[in-house]
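retry 2 of 3: previous attempt timed out while embedding adenosine monophosphate. Reduced batch size to 1 and resubmitted. Inputs unchanged:
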Amino acid sequence: MLGLMQDWPLTVDKILDHAAEWHGGREIVSRSLEGPIVRTTYGAMHDRAKRISNALKAMGVKLGDRVATLAWNSGRHMEAWYGIMGIGAVCHTLNPRLFADQLCYIINHAEDKVLFTDLTFLPTLVERRAQMPSVEQVVVMTDRDHMGAAAALPGALCFETLVEEHSPDCVWGGFDEHTAAGICYTSGTTGNPKGVVYSHRSNFLHTLVTLQRDVMGLSLHDVALMVAPMFHANAWGLAFSCPAVGCKLVMPGQRLDGAAVLELIETEGVTFAGAVPTVWQMLLQEVRARKASFSTLKRVLIGGSAVPEALMRAFHDDYGVEVIHAWGMTETSPMGTLGVLTPEIAALPYEEQLPYRLKQGRTPMGVELKLVDDSGRRLPHDGETMGRLKVKGGFVAARYFKAEGGDILDADGFFDTGDMATIDAAGFMQITDRVKDVIKSGGEWISSIEIENLAVAHPKAMLAAVIGVAHPKWDERPLLLVKLREGESATRAEFLEFLEGKIARWWMPDDVVFVDEIPLGATGKIDKKLLRHRMEGYVLPTAQADGVK
Ligand code: AMP
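retry 2 succeeded.
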């Protein structure tokens, strides 16, 4: 027997329809690439996105065709998103931090038919245009006055001209909710990038989950700053969640530096913001340097990599801002877990809450987690046993785009995250490493992340990374690499003493090397593959013939 309720396909165009109808006057503020801060509303965005849909149809874009965007977070970028998805085309967000070769690879792999670009990326496009044979049209997201910059791209179209020339009369939706809505390629630390294909339904379900009070808990009364890029795991869903509740939305464009972000927070009255730890570190440096504070900011969502204790404390102790630590990945749309406290833990003094706040947290309804060993057997949730983290849910990837071999799930339908984790008795998951970065010493696992998090709390450290280096007796031993703060100098012993007593003795790095640079990958995470490559052949003092211990 089937239910007798209406069939209302869960397609994302309905989100902007709703925002335009019920929150039509609410503002969307962007720092434009042309310079000034620009303002629009959900009502105007809806109208303009429909014009973009008609422009795409006129270019021959049909249901299922891929349309790429190479752009920072802005109102125009969001108009392109909804314009593409509304007609059932698939929005492929390109990460501009990828190398040009990788960009060409994924454009060709996705067979993008149209490409929307910001002015910033014109030089790359001019240089590589010939290597993107599937791309029939390039749309530059600017106005006529700035189209001069696109002179070297013959035939490039102007976004504002398309908006002017096309009608806002366009019917959105009307297709199956399982239709593809977007593609995002994972940064691919091994092999080629892999395409995660979101459906309208998965985005819609993800939006509903983000709106749970213990997830992002956004309200119409919030002013949300979307720093997390739209090209990295859908800006954590904020480009859907904000219009879904009708809250004011603020976007930083290309300027992610502390001064620019602080200005937006203060002048726009931001209450909620989402960004990776590095952005917050830059912001706090600026706030401290200016001896400023936050007048409206209440909650910050931090994810993408682990939140260092110093960052958590600074927000809480110095500025009274609540930190929500989140874990997720491109394959999970991305929201997987959140460090939101249970009533029992919230009743504890802050110092006792802290270890829980620093974990990646608990799953919201809609996400299932399990911890398994190498043979797939479930491991206990005792907060001690480290295992492979697997995840399942209505917005978790089942396979990659055009991938050989089909599903990427185990027999119970779980996806292997590639993360190592523990889960404690209160349900808090903690990422201990990436499977490929965990250090295997004498048959036991050492968490590189845990040592890094402790080392980076040293007052002289700017960044810290730990990698496994070959060792004749133990297979691998940890090596700590430190980038010091400007003008500082330090010794190996200072760092080892700092770690003393904070980690097990056998986790103690065998050496400390001070470096000028710790390379970050396209999504702002430490590029361990490159670090390992750079340190290839490095001989630990403990591995020298007479020093093997
Ligand atoms: P991406 O698909 O590029 O977003 O990368 C996802 C990966 O980032 C995850 O599998 C984790 O390894 C890592 N990650 C994301 N959030 C966190 C976090 N809060 N703490 C530690 N690692 C994280």
